[in-house]
Structures are given as C-alpha cells and as structure tokens.
Amino acid sequence: MGLILERVRMELGHLARKATGEKTRRRGAAIEAFEAARADLRPGDLAIDLGANIGLITETLAETGADVIAFEPDPHAFELLSARLAGRANVTLIQAAAAAQAGTLPLMRHRDFANDPDRRTVSSTLVQGKRRMEGGETVEVEVKDFVAYLHALNRPVKLLKIDIEGSEVALLERLLGDPVAARIGHVFVETHERAVISLAARTRALKRRAARMDRPVINWDWR
Q1: How far apart are the first and last CA of the chain?
Q2: Cα separation of 189 and 218, whole Å?
Q3: What are the CA-CA distances from residue 129 to residues 52, 175, 194 (Å)?
Q4: 101 touches 79 (CB < 8 A)
Q5: In this structure, which topology does domain 2-100+142-219 adopt according to CATH?
C-alpha cells in the first residue's frame, strides 16, 4: 500500500509541475504579445486600462505617446494612480469601475486590506464569492457602462487591458455581443474563475465565442 501511495503522490506531483509549467509558458507568451502590441502604439492611438490599480501598466502604455484612458474604482488605489501619472497630458484617469451596467455598487476589499492597503488594493472586487474577501470592508463606488462609454467615445481602441477581479465575464459577454467590439484591436484579459468558481462555465463559453470572431483578438492569459 505504501508503494502505491508513493506512486500516486509522484504522479500528482508530475501533473502539478506540468500544469504549472504550462501556465508559466502561457503567461510568458501573453507578456510577449502584450509587449509587441504596446510597442506598436503611436501618438494618436488609444489604449484603455480597465483595473489600472496603482498605474504600473498605465504608465508603460503612456510612455508610448499614445492616448491612455485608465479606470480604477478603489479610492486608495486611485490616489496612488493619480500621483504616479500626474502631469501626463496623454492620460485620462477615471475613478470608476468599468462593467456591464452603470450604477453604484459596493466594492469589496481584501480581508487584510487595513494591514497592507497598497498591496491588497489589487484584490478589490465587485463580484460576490471571491476567495479571501470574507469579512473585508466595502466602499461604494461609481460603475460605468463600458459599452456605452465606447459608443460615446467613438474612437478605435488599439489595445485594451482588462484586470477587474471577476467583473470581466459580464463585461465581455456584453461587449462581444455589440458592434462596438469590432473597433478594438487587441484585448489582454486576466480571468478569475479560480478565485470565483461560479465564473468557470461562463469564462469557457466566452473563450469559445471569442475564437469565432475576427476582432477583437483576445489573449486570455494576461498575468
């Protein structure tokens, strides 16, 4: 029995390493694709950062000279984002969440937010059921209808980055069903079905749907 258990452990370890290696490979490829798309940005182009947090990605996009619009709902993160991008004439900062519908919603923060707000703000979410959010504080934030925003903007979007802690599913379900999606070139999205299990089936359906579309080109392995 001991030998059998040992073999099972070895096989599980092999599968775990294989999965981890594949995940790392995909993420590496996504970063390379993002860098290529970023390098193709020129002044006059438009990039949008949904879930900008403290602005690390926003800043790299702004350095290309392209116009950049960054959405961030968490007040603490937005304060840091504003400080980082201060003086950038080509950057527009919007203190709101981008989602499928407009309104006002409670933004849930990590349960350890108070101990390390600069780090934990990255986990803030509008979606119920995300791990490690139980017992955390909430703050009311503005939510903008992103599809309506794109229609009003009436500009091609060369690069769109989405990291909105689970809200990406509902947003993309709406976006991919609207003609405005054809104005977008590349999308880099982080999905959160591991943290919010209820999103898994909808995420798989979105990937199948996107695979049948010419535009936008979506990379699902961001970060």
Answers
A1: 41
A2: 7
A3: 22, 23, 11
A4: no
A5: Rossmann fold (3.40.50)
Domain boundaries along the sequence of the chain: 2-100+142-219
Residue in the block written with tokens 């769109």? 160
Q: Which amino acid is at 213?
A: M
Provide the residue count of the chain. Answer: 223
* Per-residue pLDDT tens digits for 63-114: 999 999 999 999 999 999 999 999 999 999 999 999 999 999 888 887 767 7
User: Token pair 């993420």 is at which residue?
Assistant: 27
Instruction: Give the model confidence (pLDDT) of 8-60 as tens digits.
Output: 444 445 444 444 566 777 878 888 899 999 999 999 999 999 999 999 999 99
51 close to 99: Cβ distance less than 8 angstroms: no
